[in-house]
Amino acid sequence: MTVISPSSFLVADIGGTNARFAIADADGQGRPTLAAIRELRASEYPTLAAAAGDYLASLGTERPRTGVFAVASPVTSDAIRFTNSPWSFSVRALQTELALEALVLINDFAAVAHAVANLRRDDVRAIGVDTTTLAGDGGDGHYVVLGPGTGLGVGALARRGGVSIVIETEGGHVGFAPGNAYELKLLEALWRDHPRISAERLLSGQGLLNLYRAVCAVDGEPASVDTPEQISRQAAAAPESACGRSVALFCELLGAFAGDAVLMHGAWGGVYLAGGITQKLLPWIERGGFRGRFESKGRFETLMKRVPVLAITHPQPGLLGAAARGLLARPDR
């Protein structure tokens, strides 16, 4: 049974596919800690309140009094509607239903940005150029956090005097920019089914399937698989197949997008890559064209070669970031 102390609070990381919950607190150094972590399939619950209620019931009679939820949605009002999920809710109504004294909502990649300053060396893996300095080491700097999952999340982070300043964005919905003639053909193929092609339309779970179908259409091959999981499995078995070429191109496009995000935000301190797909495709990202497309920015190529990219390997960066955000509200912080 999890012990709920007066300082403990509920944290959640709610995406389009999974709903993750935990009890958060601080250790002796004031760093966020997580306990009683549980991951639920969003499709198995009619509402977020039902999923959260199931989690709280598993804790027993003790309940946290406050909560911080990270959600895959813009957080601009009391009404929250998920971008890649049928769930929607009122923040005030959810707080009442869960019997919480306070409930803070933040964007899911804002949570990842809050987590960045709490990551240790063994929580990250360098893609290309390494760095001896992490965002949490005390210096000032600008960073971008991004990553593909059910959608494509993007957030920005400024560190000033040991304090994290997080900027929530919906950067995954900027328009896709082809980088060569072949990618222009892919864009034209995608236009047949979608009036606007965002980066997320290609750089997400469903995006991998969209990309694969476009590759098949342009290359004159039949599309024989129907899910991102099938594409990944076939790519591993046959790297030269349409699936393999699609996964390799996915990683190249992710690198190009990450490089553009650095330029847009002046994130010379580096990029932190998150998202479930990042973990699954990390070997492809490391050995493929990700880094080349990341650096290939014309007159800024020399500068981009010095910008580190760190893949987050911490198992729960969203929950960790929600916990870090919750600690900021404490009177002693």
TrEMBL record:
GO CC annotations, alphabetized: cytosol
EC numbers: 2.7.1.2
Catalytic activity: D-glucose + ATP = D-glucose 6-phosphate + ADP + H(+)
Subcellular locations according to the entry: Cytoplasm
InterPro entries noted in UniProt: ATPase_NBD, Bacterial_glucokinase, Glucokinase
Keyword list, A-Z: ATP-binding, Cytoplasm, Glycolysis, Kinase, Nucleotide-binding, Transferase
Residues that coordinate or bind ATP: A12, D13, I14, G15, G16, T17
Alphabetical GO biological process terms: glycolytic process
One of the Pfam families matching this protein, by short name: Glucokinase
GO molecular function per UniProt: ATP binding; D-glucose binding; glucokinase activity
Matching SUPFAM superfamilies: Actin-like ATPase domain
Top EC group: transferase
Family: Belongs to the bacterial glucokinase family.
PANTHER family, per the entry: GLUCOKINASE
HAMAP family referenced in this protein's UniProt entry, alphabetically: Glucokinase
Name under which the protein is recorded: Glucokinase
Source species: Solimonas terrae
